[in-house]
C-alpha cells in the first residue's frame, strides 16, 4: 500500500485532507471558545456606569448586565414605598427584617420608566424614613428582579409587604412602566444645583439621624457558564476532521485493492495466454509435419517412401531390438 500512497495524486489528496481537517479543528476550537460565558471581571463590574447606557427597560437582564455598579439621576416617585420581607442584615447570622423599596424616576429613560431602588433596611415597618425628594444622584448595584412569591401582596397598617422583589408585582402596585431589575443603593446624593440647600450631601440610609441602615450588596460569586450546544458543535467539527482523513485512507485502500485485482487478472490472463499459445503452436507443428509427410509421399510415391504407419511400426521395432 505504501507504493500506492506515494503516487502524486494520493500525496496531493493527503495534503488536501490535512488542510480540510485543520480547518475543521479550528472551527471546533472556535465553537469551544464560544461555549464558555465568563462573567465580567470585577474591575469592570465595580466601575460605575450610567444605567441608561448599560441596561434598557422592559427587556430581560442577561448575566453580563447584572451585578454592575450603576449611577443614575432622577427623583423618587411619592407614595411608592413597599417592604420586602424577610431580609437578613449583617450576613447569614444577621437580624431578619425588611428592605425598604421605592420607585425611582430615571432621567433619560426612553418612556419615563422607573426602577425599584432598595433605599435601606429596617427591623420594623414602623421604623422607616420617607423617600428623599428632589433631584438625586444614586450609585448602587444593578441586580435582576426576583419572581413573584406565592404569599402575594400583604397590606398592613404601615404599608405594603412583599415576599420577593418582583418587578411584575411592583408594576401592578405602582401602575408605572418599570425596568426588569432593581438597584441596591449605596449612595443617594442630592443634586439640586450648586446653590441649592443640601446639594451634594448624602440623603439616603448613610445620612445621620435616619432610621434605615444601608444595604451593601457585594459582587456575586464569579461563575463561568457553558453552552452545551456549542460544545456539541465543537465535537462534531472534530469528528468531521477525522472523517476527512478516513475518506482519504478509504479511497487509497480502494485504489490499492483495485490495483491488486488488476495485477491478479493480468497474471491469470498471461498464464491462460501462454497455455493457449503453446497449444496453438503444438497444433501448428503437428499440422506442418503432417503436410510435410503427405507432400513427401506424393513426390516420391508410396512404394519408395514408407507411410506414416510403416514409419511408426519401424520405430517401435527398432526400440524393441535395442
How many strands in all?
Answer: 11
Poorly predicted runs: none
* Total domains: 2
Residue-averaged pLDDT, rounded?
85
Shape: rod-shaped
Major sheet strand order: 3-5-6-10-7
N-to-C SSE series?
HHEHEHEEEEEEEHEEHH
Beta-strand content:
15-25%
Q: Provide the structure class.
A: alpha+beta
Q: Helix coverage percent of residues?
A: 40-55%
Radius of gyration: 50 Å
Largest sheet: 5 strands, mixed, barrel
Total helix count?
7
Head-to-tail CA distance between termini: 62 Å
Membrane topology: Multi-pass membrane protein
Organism: Citricoccus parietis
Transmembrane segments: 12-32, 228-249
Subcellular location: Cell membrane
Written account of the structure:
- By secondary structure, the chain is an alpha+beta fold.
- The protein has two domains: 2-36 and 227-259; 42-223, no CATH class.
- Helix content is 42%, strand content 21%.
- A five-stranded mixed barrel has the order 3-5-6-10-7. Strands 1-11 form a two-stranded antiparallel ribbon.
- Strand 8 (153-155) and strand 9 form a beta hairpin.
- The longest helix has 73 residues, at 228-300.
- The two termini are 62 Å apart.
- The mean pLDDT is 85.
- This is SURF1-like protein.
- Keywords: Cell membrane, Membrane, Transmembrane, Transmembrane helix.
- Residues 310-322 have a biased composition (Low complexity).
- It is a multi-pass membrane protein.
- InterPro entries: Surf1/Shy1.
Amino acid at each position: 500500500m505504501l507504493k500506492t500512497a506515494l503516487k502524486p495524486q494520493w500525496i496531493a489528496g493527503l495534503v488536501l485532507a490535512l488542510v480540510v481537517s485543520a480547518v475543521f479543528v479550528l472551527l471546533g476550537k472556535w465553537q469551544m471558545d464560544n461555549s464558555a460565558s465568563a462573567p465580567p471581571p470585577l474591575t469592570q463590574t465595580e466601575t460605575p456606569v450610567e444605567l441608561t447606557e448599560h441596561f434598557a427597560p422592559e427587556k430581560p437582564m442577561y448575566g453580563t448586565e447584572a451585578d454592575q455598579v450603576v449611577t443614575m439621576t432622577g427623583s423618587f416617585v411619592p407614595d411608592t414605598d413597599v417592604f420586602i420581607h424577610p431580609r437578613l442584615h449583617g450576613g447569614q447570622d444577621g437580624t431578619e427584617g425588611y428592605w425598604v423599596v421605592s420607585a425611582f424616576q430615571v432621567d433619560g429613560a426612553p418612556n419615563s420608566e422607573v426602577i425599584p431602588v432598595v433605599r435601606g433596611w429596617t427591623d420594623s415597618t414602623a421604623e422607616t424614613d420617607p423617600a428623599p425628594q428632589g433631584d438625586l444622584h444614586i450609585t448602587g448595584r444593578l441586580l435582576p428582579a426576583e419572581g413573584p412569591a406565592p404569599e402575594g401582596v400583604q397590606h398592613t397598617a404601615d404599608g405594603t409587604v412583599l415576599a420577593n422583589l418582583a418587578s411584575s408585582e411592583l408594576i401592578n402596585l405602582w401602575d408605572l412602566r418599570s425596568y426588569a431589575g432593581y438597584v441596591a443603593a449605596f449612595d443617594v446624593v442630592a443634586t439640586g444645583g450648586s446653590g441649592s440647600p443640601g446639594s451634594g450631601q448624602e440623603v439616603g440610609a448613610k445620612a445621620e439621624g435616619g432610621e434605615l441602615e444601608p444595604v451593601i450588596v457585594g459582587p456575586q460569586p464569579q461563575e463561568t457558564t457553558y453552552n452545551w450546544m456549542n460544545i456539541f458543535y465543537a465535537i462534531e467539527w472534530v469528528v468531521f476532521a477525522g472523517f476527512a482523513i478516513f475518506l482519504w485512507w478509504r479511497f487509497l485502500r480502494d485504489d490499492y485493492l483495485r490495483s491488486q485485482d488488476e495485477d491478479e487478472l493480468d497474471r491469470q490472463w498471461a498464464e491462460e495466454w501462454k497455455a493457449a499459445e503453446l497449444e496453438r503452436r503444438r497444433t501448428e507443428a503437428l499440422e506442418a509435419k503432417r503436410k510435410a509427410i503427405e507432400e513427401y509421399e506424393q513426390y516420391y510415391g508410396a512404394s519408395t517412401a514408407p507411410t506414416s504407419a510403416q514409419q511408426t511400426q519401424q520405430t517401435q521395432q527398432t526400440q524393441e531390438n535395442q
